[in-house]
Every structure is written in C-alpha cells, then in structure tokens.
Write a structure and sequence with these properties.
The protein has 269 residues and is α/β, with parallel strands linked by helices. It is built from seven helices and 16 strands. α1 links the parallel β1 and β2.
C-alpha cells in the first residue's frame, strides 16, 4: 500500500502525477491519493472578497485561520473543484477513482481547536484566536478505505474532517495523509510538493538532503521552511504509526511517484 499526497501549492504537475498514479494502479499497486488545495483556495478567496489570513503558532507553525466563511470556501475548492478534477483526470486514464472528504462515512474525525494560541504580528506577543474551524485528526476509518480498495476503487481524499459534534473542519493535508497511511498500514507515504525534497539551505535546490534516519526526523525541523514544517511533522507522525518509509519528492517532474520510489527526493526510513 502506498499513500500519495499531492500538494496544494502552485507548480505541481497534476497531469504527470495522475498519469503516474494510473501507471501504478494498473500494475496492481494499492494506492490512496490525498490532496491539498491551499493555492487555489487563496486565489478564489481573494476573488470572493474574503482574502486568506494566516497565523503563526508560538512553535513557528503557520496555518490558515478558518472562520466559517473561509471553511465554506475551502470546502468548495478542495472537495468541490480540486477533488472532482483529480477524479475526472484519473477516470480518463482508466482508474476507477472515488472522490470523498473526511466527512463522508466519518472517514476522518478530528477534534476542533476552538481557540488557538498565535503570535500577534502587530505586537509580537501571544494571544488566543477563537471561532476557528480547524482540527487535529484523531481517527481515520481505515476499514472504509480497505472496503473501497478491495472493491476496485482508488480513493481520492480532500482535507476536510468531521468533529464529534458533526461540524466540518479544515485539517492539514500532510498530517491527514500521515494519519491515512497509518490507518491502512501503508508501507510508504509520498509527499509531493514544488521542491525536490527537504533542503538544507532553502531555496537552494542543490542542498537537497537525500536521507534522514527516522530517529532524527524531528531534528530536521531546523531546515524546514514554511509549509515544509508541517510535512516534517506529518512524516514523524506517519513513522510513529508504523509507516516504514516517508519520501518528500518533487511533484513538478514527469513520473514523480516512480522517481520517489527510486529514491529521488528526501527519504526518511
């Protein structure tokens, strides 16, 4: 079993990723796709007159502030547009893809962070931000995913989860992919983005770190910039859940999954 997470930033070669997914599925490889949608959400939020807001935690992690209006835009973009278009492309390639979000069948249940601690950019001091519709995934219905896979479907999952109270929540797609990989006992988790892997000196791509021992993955946070911090955190969580190997790989290239499996990128094992 392989879980492939497609980044939501600009620059990803969706055509090549989907073609590579199809090539692997058609050889009998069991595969699940998880995707993001941050770049498209930002663009559509601007067009709708509700520009995105980002906040930074005291530990340095940046995330989207998700009020109810933002949640509805995020759902429209990720579950509505991006998920549908990935499924469409895979179906054209002969893959019986099935799109869903974490709300469907209670696939992903998350605890809502009703108040989050952030650094106020105006003062540099910590403060609490309330009415946020984000969550941390606590359970993934791996049984449902296996039912779909054994029935011949390739699940394509949008990063929305359900709270125990039945509220839709925005969840981090990298960490969602890690939880999915753990729930289905995947052998590998591949995180595709618009860089070749973890860089020792971002943005210099010649400083790619080719391998990280899984015992030292959290120490590698010192090299992670921006969104890569969440990927490193997701990798750590996947390894703790029993995933044997996590690969940060380049989603801009031809054959990105095959390249990742051949060791091109940052391999954590």
């Amino acid at each position: 079993m392989i879980v492939v997470k497609i980044g939501g930033t600009n620059g990803i070669n969706f055509g090549a990723v989907c073609a590579d997914v199809a090539a692997h599925v058609q050889t009998g490889q069991k595969l699940i796709v998880v995707h993001g949608g941050s770049g498209e959400t930002n663009a559509i939020s601007e067009r709708l007159g509700h520009p995105p807001q980002f906040v930074t935690s005291p530990s340095g992690f940046t995330s989207r502030y998700t009020d109810r209006a933002t949640l509805e835009i995020f759902a429209m973009v990720t579950s509505g547009k991006i998920n549908t278009l990935i499924v469409e492309r895979l179906q054209k390639l002969g893959v019986n893809a099935l799109g869903l979000s974490g709300l469907d069948g209670r696939l992903m249940v998350a605890r809502r962070k009703e108040a989050i601690r952030i650094i106020d950019p105006a003062t540099g001091k910590q403060r609490m931000l309330r009415d946020d519709y984000t969550g941390k995934i606590e359970t993934v219905n791996g049984h449902l995913l296996w039912l779909l896979i054994e029935a011949g479907y390739t699940p394509v999952i949008a990063p929305l989860a359900l709270s125990p109270e039945g509220e839709a929540l925005n969840v981090d797609a990298d960490r969602a992919a890690a939880m999915v990989a753990g729930a289905v006992e995947a052998e590998r988790l591949i995180l595709l983005s618009n860089v070749p892997g973890l860089l020792r000196q971002f943005p210099d791509e010649s400083t790619l770190i080719p391998h990280i021992d899984k015992a030292r993955v959290e120490q590698s946070l010192e090299f992670a910039e921006g969104r890569m911090k969440k990927k490193v955190l997701g990798a750590s969580e996947a390894l703790q859940l029993g995933v044997a190997q996590v690969i940060f790989a380049d989603g801009r290239t031809d054959d990105p999954i095959a390249n990742a499996l051949a060791g091109k990128g940052t391999v954590i094992s």
